[in-house]
Protein 1
Amino acid sequence: RLAPGGLRVAEAVLDPPDFPHVDLVSTALQSQDLLGLVEAVSRRAASYAKRWEAFAALPARYEPLWQPSSSSLRIITDVATNLTVSVDIPHDWPWPAAGALKPAPIRVLAADGIPYHRREGLAAMSAELAADAAKSGGDNQGGLTAQLAALETKLFVYAHRCRNDCEGNGVCDTGVFPPVCRCHVGYSNDDCSWVGCPNDCLGRGACDKMQICRHDGETGETSCVGGTGKCSCQAPYFGADCSLRPCDKNYIVNERNVDVTLGVEHFRSLYESMGWTLATVRLSATNGDPPPKGSIPGDQFSVAASEKGVAFIVFASSEHAMAARAADPYYRDAVPSRGIAERARFFPDELRALEQRERHLLALFGKAQAECSGHGACDYGAGECFCAARFFGAACEYTYCARDCAGHGRCDFVTGECACERNYVSDQFAGCTLRRLFLASTTCEDAAMDRRVDAGGRRLLPLHLSCMMGVPLGANAFSGHCPEANALTGDRGDCYTTFPAYVSELANAAAVTAAAVTAQPGQPIQVCADCSGFAARNISQLHLYVEEPCRSVFGNRIVECVEGRTNSDVVRGLGMLPSGDPARPTQIT
């Protein structure tokens, strides 16, 4: 249809519309080339007639679906699970377009079911078909059926391509569909892109498997981190595969916000308020750090660098110490990379820095960083201490007492010392040993330790005066048995005794008929203890005062006392003057 005036084509209609022609009409209306329109329509009609013949000749297995007015064709292939492919066949096919020497190539539009790299695969298959068309001769690659067969071959390759080609870290198993990567040792994920950690960190940490890359649009640079294959272990584990753990400790050392001016009791009460029992608390006004480089020794900057308080806390048990470590920010936050996969590369250095810092601070208190309190060996695989003899506890922090205090005391396992019963003293080898009673025999010692008394306050087992002099009961005490020599001649003579002055208040004729008594006001009474083996007076005297026992020369006491001697409670017994006052029994040492 021409426009009014007959000089311009206004509209063109193709009847019947059996093939796409809108583009041809649009071009003709713009160019006003009626002869060109007729030629183009004739060429396309011939092309589509040939195309329909080729479509009709396709094998039935393709189940081709096409529309006469469309350039697309959809077929079902034998690839994998009968993948569906849609292709675009140029309008001029199977002949070259106007001005071309060879037919235009077929373009792949879609391939439903390709599991990975679909867009890349479609572009690659289209490019390969175009290359085939460029190489082909006038036979047009053998016709449409031959081209679709070639397409199936290419589709098989791309449909059985593993994700990211397994990153070169595995083998693509095409025996299954979708294909699966069989990763080499040390790699994981569906494309083998994850670097495996040793033993997968045993479930005790985060594995830095994946490399994360960020592209900077401004600079065009791409930076990548991660994918180191290292473990960032959860507390308290460490090691390449988080298989190790430290043994328990019975102390903490802290330099965070420690004000030493508050004193030891402040820190003791602070930790004890949390339910923990402390053994010792020590403070240091300095952390021992060297002055900063370039600072002047003694100026405020160099001094301030080390003027930071440090607390060293030893707990009564390792259980309390480990609970304090878990709650103390100094230990809890010292390794920020714990359990974070992308920071696994920092984990070993952060853990090592904490250990080195603890050793530095312990040195301020003269302590070494020793596993198991220095009393055993640590099995890092189990995190348990194997304690040396005499030591026990999770950190070998407790000490057995020697011979379990020999049955005569209670063991303080923190110090390893015995709190012994009366008449026993602590000994590092024997536990609790009988204190020196300076008595003549074990019979005398047994009697001295037996403190049973009757209703009247009298000993059930009396202690004889002869026990004090080192002679058998009833025997005379002559020169060799006296504790002191004659001050004039140096010879040891017969022994005599001197009783405290208050004895004179109880003395009477009936009580001392066998004793030679000389009493003067304010002076001790000398009593002959002949019934215990002492028959004669000697210048050397055994004082029975309540005070610390000392020797005397000519009746005068000197400051030369025997250490360790204590008073023995002596009441009625053979060879000694009885006391009638239970509140003031006669004392003898």
Protein 2
Amino acid sequence: SGSGPHPWPQTQGGAQVVGQEGWRKKGLDQRGLQLVAMAAKADKSKKVDKEEAPKDLESAFLANKEWEYPVEQRSGWLPLGAQEMVDAHPFTRRAVEKNPRFPGYVPAEALFCWAEADFASYINSGGFVKPKLQCQYYISPENPQSIVDLLEPVLSDMNWVCSVDSNVGRDEEMTATTDYMGMPVARSKKLEDGTIETIKPSDKVAPIFIWEASRRMVDRKPTLKYRGLANRLDGITMHTKVGMLELVRERCIERDIPINFPPPWYPLAFVLPDDLEQWKRHAEANPHKKWIYKPNNEAMGRGIILVDKITDVDSKARPFRTRCRNVEVFDPSEAPLKERDFANHGVIQEYMVNPMLLENRKFAVRVYMLVARVKPFLAFHYNFGYIKRCGEFYDENKFQREDLFRHITNQEFQKKQDDFTESSAAQLMSIESLDAYLRDNMGIPAFRLNFWQQVKAICMEVCLGIKETCTQDCRLGSFEVFGLDVIVDADQRVYMLEANRDPSWVCDTAVKKAIIPEMVREMLELVFWAHSPEGKGKEAMLSSPMRGFEVLIDEAFGFQALDLD
């Protein structure tokens, strides 16, 4: 005890403190005292660093832009102008008003995967809270698995996830009330009957990409509002038999120099029952002609009737109206040669009696046309296709119901033959192989070149026929690929038969496997390019990622592949 320094370490707040006299008694010299002083200073510096650590973390968060999402979480495609649209979105503006010190920006993907609460939590937290950032693509459950298998690899590469939930939307009305953090909260509303309704903030989001089937299953407007993509052109009816006939008639009138109907590339046709009397007069004046009836909204050979004479359609004993029966859903197990009724609406078309034959069998060619963008209009045709043929030998004099397998080339219909797998109908052929066959066996040179020139002209006519409707009725983001069926006569003239908006995607032969998967992949690449910043102000002929496709119309640059007039 005593009043001098204690020879042992003292403590202050749990830390040992040693006076200089105490250290000297421990035998330390002046150098030792300097080292002790330096250690004490360093210890004091560490305490200061710990006190300032929270401030340095925030600075590092801002300096390193840690409010941003990592690249691997971002979408592989975004529409042109997406960032500007999300910056101006009401959900963004209100949240930024609550937190004007928000250091960053809302990622453009939020247009397609965030609800109002996600915008608020991200902005109000200054980017510390990161809602899930993954866009969805919607594929209608009515689509066959074959097209799902073709689309999925490409869309998944975009870092999108598949959804079949048709309950989509984008409610732009902001929640009336928020909590002290600016988060939208549910509110109560008293109804007329005295009950209380709880109105919760909407959690609906719109997919960035939609692939519909034959029926409309999902609301496309929320997706198209922010320039997402949807595979349907509103207002287009050319995929129906009557719609195609009307388009061709209008093209004959609207061209610079009008021509008579039918044009050289489309068989004469009439709408039934509207043009029944007109058709009867024509058929009576041309009794040598044969006809084929096709119901308006059907495919795969369903409802087709071979017509050899007027009484096959209408007579005093059996008027046409008594032969009509509207069938909403065809029975897939129905016998292919069963007696058929006329539909309430359809076309009767002149039958080509002199088709080009392949090993004495009638054949048709499936080709593809793509409307990749509607504003400004951009369309392509695909330079590869395949031949589908009948299983039975062609004979124009055998034209009854039991002869359908020698006249209808549709593969789904031909598959109903008992011996389909062993018949020629199962053996599809590429156009390149057909070109070689015709050269070697029929002495026809350069068939392929002549064929594609005519197909290009037909596709141009069709595109010009729908262009105005696309411009007026379709929103940016709409696109569609069509399967067109054409037939060639003995003089190598090509005729348009019909257009399919849901062509077969089944890759069940080597020929289809060589054509369809690559066509689908390139189609998506062209659609993405046409609606992205990469395609802005770029001419498709020079800059688009086309390989098998060829530009038909590029309205932005005044380009048309052919001058039809």
Protein 3
Amino acid sequence: PNASSDLPCLYVRPAGSQRQQSAHVAASAWSSWNSHLFVCSLKTYALGNPRSAWTGKAHLRAELIALPMRLSSPRATGDLSLRWPRRPPPRLPRPPPPVRPSSELSLLAPPLSTPAWPRASAAKSDSLSPLVVSAAYPRLRLAPAPPPPPPPGARQQQRPAGRRTTTQPKVQGKLLRSIWDIFRLHDPEGTGHLSQLPFAEAVRTCQALLPPDIELLVPEDAWKQSGGAQTGFVNFPQFCSWVEQLGLGLPIGLKNADAQSEEEFVGNGRSLRPASWAPGQDGLVQVTDPDLLAALQEMLDSTHKTSDNWTRDRGCALHGVNKCEDACVFRNRQPVPSSYTLLAAYRNQNIGLWSRYSQFKHTTVERCATKSALEYKHVPVASAVDLQDPLDQRCNEWRLFHGSSIDACRSICASNFQLNHSGTGATWRRSGEDRGMPLYGYGIYFGERITKADEYAEPVPAGYPEAGLHCAVIGRVVGGRCREVTESHLEVDELRKDVFQGPYDSILGDRVTTLGKPYREVVVYEQDQCFPEFMLVYARQYR
């Protein structure tokens, strides 16, 4: 060893040799943080008959074969060099250099300098000795070497055609056991969303896991198919639904809190049916349990606001909603009901919507449990009633109201809320406009009080059995990390950015605490974040 040098030294003892033949290999300067580590093999040729490898009498000829890996080292960046023994061999004519396979190593710069080789005088040893050299050589272009041929007579395993084995695939040095692992690989900040560029990288990761005969995936087409063009981001349920169409055979990778095992949750991409659902029935199923009907009526009674309960969205008593000027609306206010009587309730047993909602909820639970600069805080709302299925307080799961027409309520229960309908209901808009700008931007709005949701409920038209009544949806909503907004001057783009690119998951518009307005509202910007659980048919009561 070179005691005068502060650089680490590596010595090689070739396998299969009785003599301690070695080469003193070091680096003139060592790699910096986040640079590359090279794993090399030293192919040695024994020359001479040295008594001791450490006296500098051994002469070795070396051939380096490099493969890229990663290393963290605090030294400065430099080039790889070979340091030979202290007593150099006599300078003799150099033999022709060995032929390197182009598939193993390709240099974009002049080759490494090597000393003159001595004349061969001993038998050659073809044994390969693994060697780890900590050095950076940025001008090195690497290509994988072909695998060695199997030994004669060896029995080779035949892989079934049509699907690549994906038991434990590795991409970027990470083990990918599930779709959730792929999503988290490209969402390192844990926002729960992929913008277009990380999504394209995730598409390439999925391509690497597909059989080689499968047609190449086009990231732009996958972006549209997964729904990213609608909001500018893709959440995990959307990504999971797209990946399942590829046939990778990977599990979803989430643990359902209500399931006994992960497989029960991820089977065919669908979660378990809740225990409270009626067996063997799908879609809207009428509620006949008297206890549940009584709990729903109590929910209407407890969330009704009896005073200071009128807003402009309820409309004018003479002209209706958005059909006259503000002065006429405030002069002829539409009266507010004094109470609400539940006449019928329907449970929405839509397993497809429930599965996507369950996936979103459990990803939010994981993110809320992760330590970050913004700590998770439970936010209570007036309508967060457990009913038969308890709500998950680990992610601010709530039950909230959303009023609309009877046809819209049925459509919501069948295909969930549609973001492109935001601003087309009772939202205030200028005369002649078909769509208004909601207060917190285009999203899905819920009220914690039935009195607020009833402002947007339309009377059931004639020809329906429920003619003259009103309808509302009770939705289960994942609030997650909730941003509470109390000011009147809002930047809508900033709110969306805080949700899609920041640490928040929802918006709580609190216009009561500071501004003295009647109601608070909850806004989410993704349909998978909510599940329409019940459709209520009720009657307005006036004193």
